[in-house]
Amino acid sequence: MRKGSNSMKHIVGSLLLCALILIAESPALCGSLKLYDISEREMVTLESVLPRLTAGRIVLIGEHHATAAHHEAQLEIIREIAETGLPLAIGLEMFRADSQDVLDRWIEGKTAVEDLRKAFSDNWGFSWTLYDDIFHYARDKKIPMVGLNISRAITRQVAREGFNSLSPEQKGTLPFVECIVDPEYMEFIKRAHGSHAHGKTNFNFFCEAQLVWDKAMAGRALEFLNTRPGFMMIILAGTGHVWKKAMPEQIRKQSTFGNTVILPQVPGEIDAERATLEDADFLFGNE
Description:
- The protein is of the alpha/beta class.
- The protein contains 12 helices and 8 strands.
- The two termini are 27 Å apart.
């Protein structure tokens, strides 16, 4: 076991607890991750809904990037789906598509953890230790990891000057965007715009930046799946991208692939009482 691996310590502790429960002949208490099933309005075990999760090609799991419990839940869902034997890939907001070679070499065992950490820092602004166990599990099980993100310079320029300010070279294969979304998603973007330094910039440009981000990540995921018919993908990204109005909506518009959305319960943001199937399919945990 790697030093400093908090989630691995949690897993080992859980296994020890389960062993004691089994000795006490009470195996039913040894359940898997609990999810709130929005369609049924009840708590269920992860194991019990695996057939629903694996019926489509894509499962999107949201996170608050700095919340360790969210990443622990993501790892448990990845592990349970991987153990069904289905060919699986992991899509990452945390890596740009132009860093894909680093991810490929990591899964092949050709990149040292120190080098991966450097690449991670170049791609992402949050602590490596939050994601460490997910990356090691993927390498141990040879699960492909796919960088979905686009250059921060692109999204920054779009937020400041609009999509049309991009050169043909910058646009490349990026999908065309304009700020046309349903009213609820528009309100979400307005709140995000007002709560950041971007609040002083042009709102339509900020909206275009959000859409190009969602569309590009959805397109990258679909590009991978279209060339690997037997695979499904678990996408890890921030809750704002995983919400059904965001990336899942772009996936729906660009493909016929079924997808399932799992969001973390966060008081004041989304919870079992207020969530609907327009937000997600399942919720997990509490912050």
